[in-house]
Structures are given as structure tokens and as C-alpha cells.
């Protein structure tokens, strides 16, 4: 089984490194084969080929092959970057880094490393080492204070996935195929035509199909599997909700507060306040407002309007909305801050010109302000997603503790519940790795798609 | 263009700094652990430093520990007991295991009853148990550094719960039981003359309270916490785990779908369906349930006796009378007994004899009659030694605050059987989580009790099996 993987790596490696005919040199072909095979062999050797052991399932094999492909791909990227430079291929440096490099001091190669070392050492000790340990831990059954730990190979991962290996491969492949198909369609259709419009819609649908595909490959539970599909769904709903509430609200409020109004400085300061509050305090505040027995909201509804408001924690929709509201409110001030700063960079000349041309306020907002803010929006999208993924544990813990029956338990909440509160280090680590992969994936996707539409202005 | 890039870079830097500052809030416990490490070790002018890690952070309970440590230090200048506060029992334990591995362990840690098995099983990197047996370390002495040993005076309920293989491994401290608190004003108004004792009586009382024109929105509540389920199993004489609840051997199987379990949760669901029980909507919601009682949204509250003083005073402040009584039980089966809850103080192994004697002396000083009585009075945890009970009686305490006596009486009324002692179980915290999540699912989503508990049973047994693979034999 391992051999099959290595042979595939040996065939595909040189194809990748020597894509253009100019580079079909024996050296590059050789390097391609070596790097690809070496990269592919790292993980199975490090894990003692456990993914191919006799008692393993098709899903285990798939994960093992997936890791081999990932290792091979990483090795090839490094090899390509190295040999492209050696072969005089100009890498696509942006103007910015090019400028800086041309003005550099001509010192030994070690000078930049020496200057970087304080940061690198801190990163290595406090970030990379624990991260590497998390990967190791994710293949174990382990607890603090235990006399031993057990290697479970991919067990902590396979129990989160569906058990049918064919579906596990086919569903993501269909989704990826749809994305590339839609992209090809969009390129081949002439801009402005009906076909191009259709292709754009298809691209959107294909991008969204990734969410559906992921939903389909996570296990719904039962048969000793972990019901991770609901957790995934909660995470998507709550994350999208927080980012939407936080960013749309942030932009709207910033746009209003940016106008010249009496006491604007006070408004703007007050608007930023929620960000200074910790997630735990945000959770307590909203808990106090909405608590069904002792909360202010229910008191007001009952005594002033005679409405018996329902317990938000007993309804999935209300509970998720409450988490989104509390977390979105907390990040709102942060977004307002950045949008207020960004609005100052919007060109007054363009706005004035558009007023003379008779453009409506809405047109000016959508056609000039929003595009001018695109770098800020892109930056905020990344930070807001990071916040929604990682920082809402305390808010959830104070407001719902995952209620009703796990409907507000998002990925980070599950990780802390299982890994920290229940002390199941291996499963906690495995779910952390999954969240890590999700964040990498979302960020890559953002850079590829948003990057095209972000305008920094100027040249 | 450059100015824009610069602005953008500046914003990014600000964001990073703000994010870094924000993260600081979550590192309190690690900082506490770090501070602790610096003072461990018997150096200085012949003074032995002993860290005492406590899982309380509230003024009353942490303050008590700090005050008693200061008293001890003043009486024994050769020792310095240093109380360090942690947010939870789990935090204390995790930090202690890591501190053992890094060579800077505390001397004493505060850890809860359900994790007794876990503490007994915990080993360091070399495979040696982390904790030393308190009984063994005392080795029959009646006095250590002039402090009388009080271990023999520990009340039976706590003694029986914490004695494993005939020995006290840890020194009992905060000990409580689950009891019921009633709003006597509402009960009087509804014409409930006698506080209900069985499930049927509770339901009958609730019918009367529901008939009140301006009565509370629901009759009663209690936290969805695994401990109350265990209490009910004890009352009904049913085991939670095999090997006599893990008391004659290691428990390797749990019975979450037993008849007693299904009966109890079925009654619970029935009360919720009839509108008598109000679920606050979250698991382990101590605050929400207590607030409902204070706000007179419910007439009865099943709760830990640890808050007997607080709840009684809180009711008086809100203008209603509070009466404590035994936790209601299933009238269809013979009552066997309620169990304790709470925590003990564990002594870490590996201290030199001088330091260890200081730690032992402190433990016995900490629970001497006067201190144990004071602890009971400020909280509601039971007086942990018979000496303290006697002292409280002579002082006339129980006559003036009868609610404080209920937990002790309830525990004294319990038979000494494995069922009413409660289970010693590996990974009990995770198994409790499985139980409370299943109950929430049943209450909120209207599921079949036996079926859902069957699924929970499978899940819990998997957790226990995995624990036993790592720790057992």
C-alpha cells in the first residue's frame, strides 16, 4: 500500500517540477522524483505506517494517502522555489518587497537570520513546538497523569468522519471539480454575456458546495462514531453570523459616525468600547439581559408588555442568535475602529466628482466607498473569522454551555470541553488539528478569491 | 500609495498588540502556577514553604483558607503555608500534574470527590503515584508539631466515602449533600402544610402551588448536574457502576440505563412536561437555579447544602422564609441513602519529612473543631468532624439555624452501602457530562428516556473503557 503511494509520488513529482518544456532537464526531473518521494515518505515513516496496518479501514488508508500527498506537495513547493531561483526564474515578487530588497545592505547571509533570531526562537519555543506536539498528540489516546498513552493512528480523526471511503473521496472531488469547472466556464465565456453571468453564479454555487461537501463527510454519529456533523454545522452558522453581523454592522455604524455630528468624538469613543470587554464579560452581560428567570429582557417583556418571552436556551435558533448577537456586538467596536480609519482614506475628490455627476448617496456608497475600503474589509474578514473561530468559548460557556443539547457547541467549544474539561488530550488535539486545517483552508481561499478584488489604490 | 501601505501596516501592528493584550486575560492560572513554582522548596532561613492550591476564588471560601493559613504560619514560624487560588478543580489538578513533571510541585492540593479515582491513579513521569496517603503519613501519631490529629473524628459519611483500601488518602474538607430548600411563604399560601418528602408528595404540592393565582411561574428547579442523578441512585439503592460502585475493585462498566436511572429521569421529565420543573436551559447551572429561587420564580430548589447559609440569608433579604429538608426520594422503593459531595485535600508525595510534617500539621489544624465549625457556619458545608458537631451543639448553633443541620441529618440517616456511598469511577467528569447532556436532550427535545439513556450508556462505557486501558492494571 505504501509503495503504491510512493510510485504515484515518483511519477507526479517530476511532472510538477518540470512543467514547462524549458525545464525538462534530467536534474530537475531527478530532483522532482526525489523531493516528491521523500516528502510522501515522511509521514508514513514517522507514524510507523500505521495507516496501512492490517486492521485499518479504507478511511485510514485515505487519510494516510492524503498526508503523503500533502508531504509530497510541500516538498515540491520548496524544491520548486529553490530551483526556480537557481535557474534564474524570476519569482513573482511584488513591487513592495522588490523595492525593499534593492535598498538592502550588502552584508553576510547570516545577518538577516541573526536579526530575526529573537522572534524565531520565541516562535519556535512557544508556537511551533507546541503545534508539532499537538500533531503527535492527535494520534494518541492520552490523559494527564496516566502511566502510559496508546497510539491510535488516525482513530481520533476517522471517528469524526463518515465510514464509507468511496463517499469520503468522491464528495470533496465533486466539489473541487465544480469549482474548477465553473472557473473554466467563466474564463471561456465572454464578459458581459449571459453565459458569463451564469458562470459567475455557478462559481458562487461551486464555492458554497465546499460547505455542503464538508457537511456530508463529517459523521452524523452512531456506531461508535463521534457526531461531528452538528458541531460543524453550528460552527458554520455561528461563524458566518458573527462575521456578517460584526462587519455589516461595523461598516454601517462607522459610515454614520464618520459624518460631522455634534459630539461625534464621544460617539466614536463609545462605539469602540465593546471591544475592550473580554468574551467572558460579553457572555455575562448578555446572560444577565436574556436570562429566562432573572433577566432584564424577560422582566421588561412580561411586566411592560405582558409577553412571556421563551427561554432562548431551549430553542436552537434563539440560542444561536443570542451567541451571534453577543459575539457580533463584541467585535463590532473593533470593526468600527478600522472602518473609521479606513473612511478617512476614501478620496474626497472622487466623492465630489460623483456628486457633480449626480450619483445618489447609495451609488456613492456602493461604487466608491466600499471598493476603497476593500483592503480594510479583507483584513477585517481575516481577523473576524479568527475571532469567531477561536475567541468565543467564554461567551458560549457563560450564555448556554452548548445548550440546547449541543446546538451552540462550536468547534472551539468542543475542543476545550473534550481536551481540557474532560482531559481527553488526544481527541482534543485531533479536533484542534481539524480547526487548524479549517483556518488554513479558509485563509487560502480568502487570499485567492478576495485578493483579486482588493484594491490598495495607486500603482 | 506608500502612505496607505504604512497605514495598513500600522493598523495590523495595532491589531496584533491589542490581540496580544486581550489574550492576557486567559492566562491567569498559568501565571499563578508560575508564581507558585518560585516559592516552593524548603530554602531560606530554615522556613519550609508549602504551597496549598485551592480551587476556590470567592472571598468567603478562599478567604477562609488564607486566614487559616496565616493563623498556622503565625503559630509555626518554621513553616509558610502559601494559599494559591485556581478557577476550578480541573485547573488545580492539571497544573499539579504538570508541576510534578517539571519538578516544582505544590505541597497540598484541593480536589473534588468525583475525581478520587483519577487522583489515586495519577502517576508522575517515572510511574510513581503523585499523591501520598494521609493515613500512612500520619502513621498512627496523635499529635504532629503540637497539633492534635483529627482524622479519627471525621464524620462517618465522609469517612466511608473517602476511605479506599482502608485508608484515608486525602483529608476531607468541604463536604455537602443535596438537600431541598423551600420558600415557606409560598408553601403556606398554597396550603402545603408539610414539606414534601417523596416524588408523589412533591407533585401534589406542586399541583397546589400551580393553582395559586399569583404564584411562582413554576414549582421547582435544580441544576442539571450529574451529582443529583447520583444522589437519586443512592436513595433508590441502585449502583452506578460495577464492582460495587468501584469500591471492591476497579469499576469497568457503568449502568446509565438502569431502572432507577430511567425512573428518576422519567419523573424529572414528567415534572418538566407538567410545568412543575423549570429547566434554566444550561447544564450545571448553579447560579441560574439559585437566582430563580431568590427571585421567587420557583417555590422549591434542590441544591447543595454548601449554600445553606447563603440561601437562608438570601431568602430573608428578599423577604421570604427558607426551610431546608431532605432531598425528595422515590416513594415506591425503600430509601437507602444520600451521598456526599465536595472535595478533599491531597498531599503530594516526595516532600522531605520536616516539610511533610508541616503539611500534615496544617491539615489537622485546618479541620480542628473550631475551624471546621466556623467553616460550616459561613458556608453550609457539613461540620467535617464529630468534635466540630459537638462544639456547634454546645454553642447552640443548630437551635438558631436549623437549616444547617439538615445535610448532616440526611447523611446520618443513610445506610452504609456501596450504592449510597456513590461511585469511584475513572474519568467521572466526562461521564457526568454524558449524563447531563443526555438529560438536556431529553428535556429540551422531548426524547424517550430509556432510549436516550441507552445511547448515553454506550458512550459512557466507551469513555470508561478507554480510561481503564490507560490506567487499569
Instruction: Calculate the mean pLDDT score of chain A and round it.
Output: 87
- Radius of gyration of chain B (CA) equals 24 Å
Measured on Cα atoms, how large is the radius of gyration of chain A? 26 Å
| Helix fraction of chain A by DSSP (H/I, runs of at least 4) | over 70%
Assess the beta-strand content of chain A as a share of residues: under 5%
Oligomer: heterodimer
> What structural class results from the helix and strand content of chain B?
alpha+beta
Helix content of chain B: 40-55%
Which sheet architecture does the biggest sheet of chain B show? 9 strands, mixed
Which stretches of chain A of 5+ consecutive residues score pLDDT under 50? 93-100
* Unreliably modeled segments of chain B: 15-44
**Overall shape of chain B:** globular
How many helix segments of chain B? 22
| Strand segment count of chain A | 2
Query: What's the order of the H and E elements of chain A?
Result: HHHHHEEHHHHHHHHHHHHHH
TL;DR?
The complex is a heterodimer of chains A (459) and B (473). With 459 residues, chain A is mainly alpha-helical.
